[in-house]
Amino acid sequence: MSGKKLTGEVYYPDKEILDRAYAKCESIYKSAEEDPLAFWENEANNLHWFKKWDKVLDDSKKPFYKWFVNGKTNIAYNCLDVHIQTPRRNKLALIWEGEDGEFRSYSYFKLHRETCRFANVLKSLGVKKGDRVTLYMGRIPELMIGMLACARIGAIHSVVYGGFSVESLHERLEDSKSKVLIVADGAKQRGKIVELKKIADEALQRAATVESVLVVKRTGHQINMESGRDMWYHELVNLPIANSSECLEIVDAEEPLYLLYTSGTTGKPKAIVHTHGGYMVGVYSTLKYVFDIHEEDRYWCAADPGWVTGHSYIVYGPLLNGATSFMYEGAPTYPYPHRWWQMIEKYGINILYTAPTAIRGLMRYGDAWPNRYNLSSLRLLGSVGEPINPEAWRWYYRVIGKEKTPIMDTWWQTETGMFMITPLPCTPLKPGSGTKPFPGLKMDIVDEKGMPAEDNEEGYLVIKSPWPAMLRTIWNDPERYIQQYWSRFPRMYLTGDSARRDEDGYYWVIGRVDDVIKVSGYRLGTAEIESALVSHPAVAEAAAIGLPHSVKGHAIHCYVLLKTGYEKSDKLIEELRQHVGHEVGPIAKPEGIEIVDSLPKTRSGKIMRRVLKAKALGQDPGNISTLED
Ligand code: PRX
Predict the structure, then answer these.
(1) Residue 159's closest CA among 358, 312, 287?
(2) Which residue's alpha carbon is nearest to atom 6 within ligand 1?
């Protein structure tokens, strides 16, 4: 970083943070920029490869990039086996607290053993390398173990967030053609049971490829077990087959590791494909440098494993770094808004990584709740998922971090797999800015023509060079991969976000430029919500938009045109809200639904959501010359 004085509100790290940090700002940016491939190659050399790569990057078939070409490895081996050959064997890998106060802990040794047993159970169900396995559970250790077990045998996991419901699960099972579904009987949330198995039963009626359902007991409530299809995990794992000799599939660096569905501009959610090799190198090194994970740290990423943040920075990143992670099952405010702060004190958490929506949600309850606890173990804080508003940033910094913990505001996406714009502990911070691209990454902000934008000019956020943890394609749809990400501007990856860069080179992400709505940090497509509404017998047409919300960031508002014969009523509106909740998931329930007589459309019949949004916000709708009516 240059010695030039920075503009605006700036927070400088103190000496203790600087001295301790692995990444030194004076050198890391410069060396990574000079030779990015050498930078990544160096990082890869810290991990275990059964056979080293012939070439770091193959860009001969752009945009289908390959990393660590012909390298042979396995990410789960690097997460577990590598550590059990060292004194880390007895170190805690995972500390878990259930919402009801239940406690479990796993050393690296134990996590390895449980993963092997889980992998053997999967093998006994006929799961082989390349098969897809869907996991649908709450935040419990078995989710992590199940993911690692898949990775270990070369199966491709597809985790469906426990907050999704019937249709979302069904679509994902069907699109991935999953052979096995691993589901928990239920999840504990806010003192209630989320009936995961019941939702799965309904989704399975419409999903043809699933041969076996492995049920993990969490809540113990009464569920339906279909004979010949459903099996209890705890029964299979206690059979001798589970203890069979080590099972490990050595895979090519480019072998798919997982699919993760995410919402895009149009149509159904699509599955992003991540691989064993490049992804492993990307998440390992970004977590190490950004959250500065040291041997003695206790790290807590409070996201859901069903989200990319959980994949990269609850499961894979921390384990690759040999860290001790904490996982909490339930809601932040259950039974009272002190829960998180109490656990930080109780477990001596050093690093907390969460989302602006959670910070705003907790900030509402005032300073007294966190002030009752000793939070002095905290050394670094993190934020992800949406732009953090400066007020929430300052509260987090002052009340939680006691003005001594830098905040790592990390910008990235399901597609990028790893942090892309992020401070390092040595970076001077500005509230609301993710600061700069991670060392070695080429990013930019461009105008409509793809030309670099001026300082402070809003434009499209793009990535101009490949990075190791990048998505490789969209599952079963390489055309859409090219179309969606690489077609708007030649040789640039389109993020779908708008941003500006200030005179100090700091990036300020503004938000999505497409039809994606971020609700409490979760990414939802207008198309998904609209198609759920239209699947209700009363609805002829629907439009969904996101409007600003003080806690959720954005909330969903819908406009609905009824079929003839249906009358507008509060009861029907509530029924429609519940219907979306049932089909897509509780997070997708619209905040408001308005029944209208017509929707603004272009002459070619496209709904102009922009006009609806402007109207709802009392703003000028801009150019409406293409409006049909
Ligand atoms: O709009 C950006 C926003 O979240 C989008 C990616 O969403 P998803 O794939 O669900 O991944 C979220 C977790 C990595 C981005 O296109 N976003 C994510 N992090 C930030 C952010 N916006 C501003 N600041 C962030 N730190």
Answers:
(1) 312
(2) 413
Encode pLDDT of 429-475 as tens digits. Answer: 999 999 999 999 999 999 999 999 999 999 999 999 999 999 999 99
State the pLDDT at residue 1: 47
Strands (E) in 217-354, as ranges, are 230-232, 251-252, 256-262, 270-275, 298-301, 324-328, 351-354
Is residue 553 a contact partner of residue 519, using CB atoms and an 8 Å limit? yes
**Average pLDDT value for residue range 282-300:** 97
The pLDDT assigned to 50 comes to: 98
Query: Quick check: 214 and 181 in contact, CB under 8 A?
Result: yes
R_g of the chain, CA atoms, integer Å: 24
Distance (Å, whole) CA 506 – CA 411: 12
- Mean pLDDT on 301-318: 96
Pair 257, 240: CB distance under 8 Å: no
pLDDT tens for residues 402-414? 999 999 999 999 9
Provide the pLDDT for residue 620.
85
Give the DSSP H/E element, type plus range, for residue 97.
strand 92-97
CB of 579 within 6 A of ligand 1: the answer is no
CA atoms of 157 and 279, how far apart (whole Å): 14
User: Which protein residue's CA is at the shortest distance from atom 8 of ligand 1?
Assistant: 413
pLDDT at 260: 98
Please give the Cα distance from 92 to 295 (Å, whole number).
Answer: 11
The finding on whether 312 has its CB within 6 A of some atom of ligand 1 is no
Q: Residue 208: its pLDDT value, please? A: 87
Quick check: 527 pLDDT over 80? yes
Six token digits for residue 67:
């990393």
Q: Ligand 1, residue 496: give the atom nearest the CA.
A: 16
In this structure, what are the phi and psi dihedrals at residue 398, rounded to the nearest 5 degrees?
A: -80, -50
157-195 burial code (b ≥16 CB/10 A, e <16): bbbbbbbbbbbbbbbbbbbbebbbbbbbbbbbbeeebbb
C-alpha distances (whole Å) from 484 to each of 308, 458, 487 are 19, 21, 7
C-alpha distances out from residue 47 to 87, 258, 301, Å: 17, 20, 22
- Ligand 1 and 134: CB distance under 6 A: no
- pLDDT above 90: residue 628: no
111: left (phi over 0), alpha (psi -120 to 50) or beta: alpha
| Closest residue by Cα to residue 363 from 330, 386, 340, 335 | 340
- Please give the full DSSP string across 317-365, using - where no structure is assigned: HHHHTT-EEEEE-S-TTSSSTTHHHHHHHHHT--EEEE-HHHHHHHHTT
Pairing mode, strands 192-194 and 187-189: antiparallel
Alpha carbon dihedral 301, 306, 308, 309, in 10-degree steps, equals -10
Strands 156-159 and 72-73: unpaired
Average pLDDT, the chain: 95
CA 407, 409, 414, 417 torsion-angle sign? negative
Q: Is the CB of 440 under 6 A from ligand 1?
A: no
Q: What is the largest CA-CA distance in the chain?
A: 71
Across 475-621, the runs of DSSP E, i.e. the strands, are: 493-501, 507-512, 516-519, 522-525, 539-549, 553-562, 592-595
Q: How far is the CA of 548 from the centre of ligand 1 (A)?
A: 16
pTM to 2 decimal places = 0.95
Alpha helices by DSSP H, listed for 478-628, are 478-486, 526-534, 570-583, 609-616
